[in-house]
């Protein structure tokens, strides 16, 4: 026991403080991950139950995508990656803004997990006719995925055999799929010829109500 007026500077006390601090930091991280998981599960549950609301908001898809890409690019620069967006003009549709935002953001951030340092994720918006539709294309320069997993990647909690070290719960692309389908669209993934994954989200011009 330390004498009066003399501070105990024993190594064991210092190690104890470090351990407590590390434990608290770990608890905070795990709490944050749990909150994120609960939030994603609730979103997926709402989509599965058809409780996503009516497509009654007017959205400029070009502006929405540009904002998401700009935010992702800002964060990606810290790890030597980029997000490049191409899409011109004004493309206004009736949609559920929150759901489309989540869909596009989830796909873009998923691509950033796999594209190597020094490369870019490309986000492109195209408009096609016969029938009238909008196509959002997100391409990365990563390793791609096995052909057998191209459909399964959009299922909840999907984890590829070589993706076990990647952060996340396997819900982001599942949410994106349900959100796109809620707008009468489809989402699909293909491997790029030059390497990487290409995800296409096809939306009708007139979203269902």
How would you concisely characterize the structure shown here?
The chain is an alpha+beta fold and about 210 residues long.
Structural summary, described in words:
- The chain is an alpha+beta fold and 209 residues long.
- It has helices at 11-48, 61-76, 97-114, 172-182; strands spanning 57-60, 82-86, 92-95, 120-128, 133-139, 186-191, 197-204.
- The strands form 2 sheets. The chain has a 5-stranded mixed beta sheet. Strands 1-3 form a two-stranded antiparallel ribbon.
- Helix 3 (97-114) packs antiparallel against helix 4.
How many H/I helical runs?
A: 4
Strand content: 15-25%
Task: Report the average pLDDT across residues.
Answer: 81
Give the % helix. 25-40%
The stretches of 5 or more residues where confidence is low (pLDDT under 50) are none
The gross shape turns out to be globular
Strand-pairing-aware structural class: alpha+beta
What does the largest sheet look like?
5 strands, mixed
| Cα-atom radius of gyration | 22 Å
Succession of helices and strands:
HEHEEHEEHEE
């Amino acid at each position: 026991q330390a004498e009066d007026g003399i501070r105990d500077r024993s190594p064991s006390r210092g190690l104890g403080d470090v351990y407590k601090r590390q434990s608290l930091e770990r608890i905070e991280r795990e709490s944050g991950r749990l909150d994120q998981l609960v939030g994603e599960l609730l979103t997926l549950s709402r989509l599965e139950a058809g409780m996503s609301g009516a497509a009654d908001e007017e959205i400029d898809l070009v502006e929405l995508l540009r904002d998401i890409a700009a935010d992702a690019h800002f964060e990606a620069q810290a790890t030597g990656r980029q997000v490049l967006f191409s899409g011109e003009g004004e493309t206004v549709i009736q949609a559920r803004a929150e759901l489309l935002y989540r869909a596009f953001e989830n796909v873009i951030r998923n691509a950033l997990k796999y594209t190597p340092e020094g490369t870019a994720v490309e986000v492109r918006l195209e408009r096609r006719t016969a029938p009238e539709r909008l196509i959002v294309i997100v391409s990365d320069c990563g390793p791609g995925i096995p052909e057998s997993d191209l459909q399964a990647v959009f299922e909840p909690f999907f984890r590829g055999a070589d993706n076990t070290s990647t952060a996340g719960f396997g819900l982001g692309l599942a949410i994106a799929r349900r959100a796109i389908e809620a707008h009468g669209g489809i989402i699909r993934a293909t491997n790029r010829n030059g390497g990487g994954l290409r995800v296409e989200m096809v939306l009708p011009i007139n979203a269902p109500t």
